[in-house]
Amino acid sequence: MAPLFFASMGSAIPIGDLWKPTILWRGLVYAALMALGKALVGPVVVLLDALLCRTRAIAPPSPSSSPSPPPPLPAPTPDISTPATRSTDTPTTLSTVESQATATTSTTDYDALVDVRISAATLLGLGLIARGEIGIVIAQLAYAAGTTSSVVLLGEEPFLVAMWAIVLCTVVGPAAMAVVARRTWTKVSAPSSPWA
């Protein structure tokens, strides 16, 4: 049934009229604007997801849950260096070394998470660019309504411009997504990814 649907949609596009210069450049501009609008949705969705995850992580526990005891503090370790080798400027203890290691690890984790979120936003935005078959159906219905009644919903020139934009986005979107997916899919689908 799907091949029949796509064949009927493709046969309704007047190919000969698409090549008029004014329709061609307007279609290209409209396709670029359409692609930009769809591509911007990816970062917005991923940013909202990040903010919601952070809000859930920071939110105080609900009153119905019983308070858990605080984790035990690590036992202090004695400084066994001799006074001659000990620096008087900055004393180094186990807790200082652990906090430095934790800061390095959390920075690395944060950078990796940002990289994964950027990759996911790019994939989502490019995936949305290719979606255009419903736009073809709506444009065809609006154009056909003008031919069967006295009310013109969509004239011939806007119809052709919309066809250019939809066809270009439908062809370019999957190609761009395939290129980006080859490079970033392992990061987005890794077990440590928020979307795995």
From TrEMBL:
State the Gene Ontology BP annotations: sodium ion transport
- TM region(s), chain numbering: 28-52, 161-181
In residue numbers, the region (Disordered) covers 59-101
Q: Which domain of life is it from?
A: Eukaryota
Q: Which GO terms describe its molecular function?
A: antiporter activity
| Stretches with biased composition (Low complexity) | 78-101
Which residue windows does the record flag with biased composition (Pro residues)?
A: 60-77
What InterPro entries does the database record attribute to this sequence? Na+/solute_symporter_sf
- This protein's UniProt keywords: Antiport, Ion transport, Membrane, Sodium, Sodium transport, Transmembrane, Transmembrane helix, Transport
Q: Which PANTHER family match?
A: NAPA-TYPE SODIUM/HYDROGEN ANTIPORTER (PTHR43562), SODIUM ION_PROTON EXCHANGER (EUROFUNG) (PTHR43562:SF3)
Tell me what this protein is called: Cation/H+ exchanger domain-containing protein
Q: Which organism is it from?
A: Allomyces macrogynus (strain ATCC 38327) (Allomyces javanicus var. macrogynus)
